[in-house]
User: Which sequence fits this backbone?
């Protein structure tokens, strides 16, 4: 499953970790959680830090790292399980695949390094095991300077420095995830006229990922109610005037993610009001991508998107005033309340298990401002960083019907003009963008963003 | 979401539980487990006992039951979450939907009934909460007579008596799951000639379920290696001479399952050897279904299948000897090692969270015999019990290459004759069968079992 390039990248990751982190580290892969009874489980997903350094999604495994050397702790399945699950690779074969210098049974973990650093896994059964085997608390990493868990923080910081920039193994995987995701969205667009429900379009999209043996990297959003930002139910019928917002991404079998959003008209044709706001969101998207290069502050991209949206809404007549002043007052955030993007890698919000430690540069914290509080990334861009760019426009009742907000922004919103855009509940356009030494490369550029091209795909008139 | 019939069945279930179980019971619904970071979760599945009595899959809820009365403990989402997740029903609205007599915040659980019985949930985070809030261990129910957890055992036994027989609400759901599952398998058959991989067929099948807003009730098996009984990976290409074994079932949004297996030729035509063994498995399937009626011991159905298979293998020349004697020696289990079926309901192995307490009648235990040890159900059948009937024939290397077994059964297997059937790795035919007062009804009978009809669907010649 691993190519020679993959194996050499794994070796390099461990070597670099050994240079950035002194001492021993133990990382658990986790186990598949039970669904309704013990034997009926959700699909296994190994923890991302484990995947980053071990390469393969081995269930119930631990790796020990010290000075660039890898020890694999894993128990071969009991021979009786071959009846139910077929033959398994031996521990020695797996150790060879991933390039582990040593391999031992799981029972050897406790004695290997009782003072090792670790990072808590999401699987709560395995988290209990971490606490027991290490004989100490293993609290979540939050980015705070907790003295007791210093070694874990050091390990987290060392891993962040590695994982912020994607190597050749990662990029091959991320391109594969992007490619399959593009194909899945295209299937969604091309099949929309054949279906009458959100659920049916979701099925078309996810079936493309499934046919490539990829799970979804996160719960797909396939909705005519795009104003619900994390809408992961699919109960609605499609009506001719609806916009369908699709935020869906594949994850490769080795765990690498894509994260893509498109919004298209169910009928195959945007209304004039939909088109105005679609083009505005696209302008923000394009402006951000054009501005990406190493050294640029991601927060400035967010403010550029805010500025583009505020300015466009003034032109359309929905907002009143000077765009700069509107952004300073966070008036744009009535319609674009979330951040412009985030890190992407093994996790769709990469390293979000570490709180804001990965997303925010040292010394920086979330800002309380309405227009900035949901920004997940505030760092200068570096080459080989992969980020999403995902501006949006939404009419969210929880914001627009909020009496306090209506009063606070009463002078700068033209509510009558806004009412003319009632056929726009939510629009988002999101691509996966790799920072390069010269600027950037959009990994998902094969998926159309221009309104006429999107319409053509929905209408089925593009081969 | 709940019909008046559903609501009246829920009321009746609670009333009956109140008659069979004295005292108070608390049942937790659980929470969605995290996948790779806290906010990225697997789809939520409420615990089945909760679903049985509450009706709706409410996340992070607890119900209190006493003398047929229901108290709902649940916290409404924080208003800030409306931005991300949209508006939510109020606790009062949900209480009204499910017919709860009282509704309280979650913080009221601890004081409501500290001596209540409960059943451990699969979600390990919630299981910790059960232990903390009740201030006592909440061990898994295993069917053993553990003194300390007597009240939990009593509650389990009372619930088993209810859940063994499906009421009108359950049957409407189970029929819906069966219907969607039949459509999914038909899509799989009809699309096989268009595809070249297991993964692509799986995608076709699951997309039908997804389009109906149904998850899979368990990890689908879609494999050309049917000899691996619980094969839930999809890496293989389809070759013209392969048989494809598909074991896949939908679960309704309210949690009710189907569990169906068909085996079809990738080319659209069984070879002569495949057809011989297919017809043999089908004969066992049909014999069991014909024998089902109230009062019949499920174990006798298993032995009937074993007898049918042993007898057929003698006719074919793979086994040598008297069929009765072969079954007594468990020779049939070389090729049919698993049980003939199991309970089906909210869980695909219904109530398997209670160990064998539901599957085995009081006083009965698993038998050590090779041919019986994997039987999951050993009870006399009752009207409105839903069971699977799923005989199979497999060539499993872990069994057939086992030197001890080859010696033990050396005199009764014709290995040369068996070698002529090398194009049969695994065949299983499984239907969902409801026991009725007169006999039984196959809920999944719309899916063909006869070889010529299966071939016609694969060849696309059946409308």
Assistant:
């Amino acid at each position: 499953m691993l190519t020679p390039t993959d194996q050499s990248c794994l070796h390099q990751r461990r070597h670099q970790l050994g240079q950035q982190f002194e001492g021993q580290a133990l990382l658990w892969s986790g186990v598949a959680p039970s669904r309704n009874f013990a034997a009926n489980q959700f699909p296994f997903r190994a923890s991302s830090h484990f995947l980053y350094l071990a390469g393969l999604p081995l269930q119930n495994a631990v790796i020990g790292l010290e000075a660039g050397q890898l020890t694999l702790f894993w128990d071969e399945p009991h021979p009786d399980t071959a009846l139910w699950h077929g033959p398994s690779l031996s521990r020695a074969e797996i150790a060879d695949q991933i390039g582990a210098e040593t391999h031992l049974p799981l029972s050897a973990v406790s004695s290997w390094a009782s003072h090792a650093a670790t990072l808590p896994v999401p699987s709560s059964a395995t988290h209990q095991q971490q606490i027991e085997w290490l004989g100490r608390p293993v609290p979540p990493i939050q980015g705070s300077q907790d003295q007791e868990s210093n070694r874990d923080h050091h390990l987290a910081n060392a891993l962040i420095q590695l994982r912020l920039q994607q190597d050749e193994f990662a990029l091959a995987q991320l391109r594969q995830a992007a490619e399959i995701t593009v194909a899945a969205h295209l299937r969604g667009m091309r099949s929309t006229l054949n279906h009458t429900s959100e659920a049916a379009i979701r099925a078309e999209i996810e079936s493309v990922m499934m046919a490539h043996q990829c799970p979804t990297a996160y719960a797909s959003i396939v909705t005519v109610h795009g104003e619900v930002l994390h809408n992961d139910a699919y109960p609605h019928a499609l009506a001719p005037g609806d916009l369908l917002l699709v935020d869906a991404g594949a994850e490769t079998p080795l765990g690498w993610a894509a994260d893509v959003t498109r919004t298209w008209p169910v009928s195959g044709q945007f209304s004039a009001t939909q088109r105005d706001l679609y083009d505005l969101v696209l302008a923000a998207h394009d402006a951000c991508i054009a501005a990406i290069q190493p050294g640029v502050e991601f927060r400035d991209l967010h403010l550029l998107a805010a500025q583009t949206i505020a300015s466009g809404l003034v032109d359309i007549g929905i907002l009143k005033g000077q765009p700069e002043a509107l952004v300073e007052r966070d008036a744009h955030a009535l319609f674009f309340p979330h951040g412009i993007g985030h890190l992407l890698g093994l996790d769709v919000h990469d390293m979000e298990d570490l709180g804001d430690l990965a997303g925010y540069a040292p010394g920086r914290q979330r800002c309380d401002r309405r227009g900035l509080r949901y920004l997940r990334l505030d760092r200068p861009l570096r080459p080989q960083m992969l980020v999403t760019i995902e501006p949006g426009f939404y009419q969210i009742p929880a914001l627009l019907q909020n009496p306090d907000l209506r009063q606070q922004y009463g002078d700068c919103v033209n509510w009558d003009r806004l009412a003319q855009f009632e056929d726009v509940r939510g629009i988002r356009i999101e691509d996966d963008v790799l920072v390069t030494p010269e600027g950037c490369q959009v990994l998902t550029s094969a998926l159309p963003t221009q309104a006429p091209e999107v319409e053509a795909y929905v209408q089925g008139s593009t081969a």
